[in-house]
Amino acid sequence: MTWSSVVKIGQSLYREAPGMDPYRPDQKTPVPNFFLAGSYTKQDYIDSMEGATLSGRQASARICEAGALLTEFNKMLPAMDPKVAEAALDFEYSTVK
């Protein structure tokens, strides 16, 4: 290597003041079937890649815990007509192009 540079941005991480942890949201929310993941959620690391990774693992654990409830919810949904499903896919692909 002939040249290198280290870029430091002091504002790239937030400073967590004492007592602010209770304001960070948990991965499981009060909204049914709605989960959060990201470095801003409740976990042991500050806003970082490690925190985001840990939060993703915690969110997936909460989703697995809710699996039985999600299975029951899925049984309550009516079976979708294949023509409706096909039309929905066609619409989705046409809007992407």
UniProtKB/TrEMBL annotation:
It comes from the Eukaryota. Gene3D superfamilies: FAD/NAD(P)-binding domain. InterPro entries: Amino_oxidase, FAD/NAD-bd_sf, Zeta_carotene_desat/Oxidored. Residues 3-63 form the Amine oxidase domain. Transmembrane segments: none annotated. This is Amine oxidase domain-containing protein. The lineage of its organism: Eukaryota, Viridiplantae, Streptophyta, Embryophyta, Marchantiophyta.
